[in-house]
Amino acid sequence: MAAKPNMTIVLATRNQGKLKEFQEILKNFPVEIKSLQDFATIPEVVEDGRTFDDNAYKKASFTAKVLGIPAIADDSGLVVEALDGAPGIYSARYAGENATDRDNIQKLLKELEGKTNRRAAFECVISIAVPSGPALTYEGRCEGEIISEPRGEGGFGYDPVFYYPGFGKTFAEADMAEKNSISHRGKALAEFVSEFDKALIWLQQRVAEMKPPKPDHSQFEHNDWSQPKMV
Ligand code: ITT
């Protein structure tokens, strides 16, 4: 049976799929997970970090600060060795601001034309921050190769061109459970969940430190009433 929630945490996303995923994996912990949809409009976070780590931390700490409660954020993407790490933090908008998955894949294949080194990795960072700033982070990485023709119908993003040698198929040909068992997100989430007991204690301590100090009654407790009062 799920424990009664004693802390609300906001997931810094409007993606309801991500929200469900986090609610599911944390269902046995005494926390309530909300998303940005549950709050009045808050300013957009500028994702201008140089790494997944920077961006995940920025999103989590900004959201925690603005809403005054702990926040979780993640950032992920594809890193290609022959392209010096591109598309990296620009994975979602590699072919432009409103690029579709198809546009991004096309651009990637074009950039890799004639290159023999096809090594690539998906990376994911999850960050959980308190309103005063500090955060804990969890990372996952999954290595594979970029093939020259998309294969498979499942998944999203770059999945049809990401070939995972351990399966002998692309992520888009693998089923979701199979992909989650070894993927960057799967690994980061597994670490996040296995450490969540410790993270909760850490969160509770940081949140308690934020509360205004209780009034100091010590002068009353230590009054010596046996002494005559000076008038
Ligand atoms: P938010 O709104 O929550 O930030 P997002 O769509 O930007 O979600 P991510 O930051 O997690 O999603 O991922 C950025 C991009 O990296 C995503 O749009 C894909 O192109 C690519 N990507 C990340 N994980 C992937 C995966 O498992 N399979 C394929 N592509 C992936």
CATH architecture: Alpha-Beta Complex
Can you identify the CATH class? Answer: Alpha Beta
Ligand roster: inosine 5'-triphosphate
Average pLDDT number: 91
Instruction: Name the poorly predicted regions.
Output: 222-226
Put simply, the count of helices is 7
> Which radius of gyration do the C-alpha atoms yield?
23 Å
Could you name the key traits of this structure?
Maf protein, alpha/beta, single chain, seven-stranded mixed β-sheet, 231 residues, binds inosine 5'-triphosphate, 32% helix
Q: Explain this structure to me?
A:
With 231 residues, this protein is of the alpha/beta class. The protein has a single domain (7-207), classed as Maf protein (Alpha-Beta Complex). It contains seven helices and seven strands. It has helices at residues 16-25, 52-67, 101-111, 176-182, 184-194, 196-210, 218-221; strands spanning 7-11, 31-35, 71-80, 119-129, 135-146, 162-164, 169-170. Strands 2-1-3-4-5-6-7 form a seven-stranded mixed beta sheet. Strand 1, helix 1 and strand 2 (31-35) form a beta-alpha-beta unit. Helix 4 crosses helix 5. Residues 222-226 have low confidence and may be disordered. Inosine 5'-triphosphate binds next to strand 3.
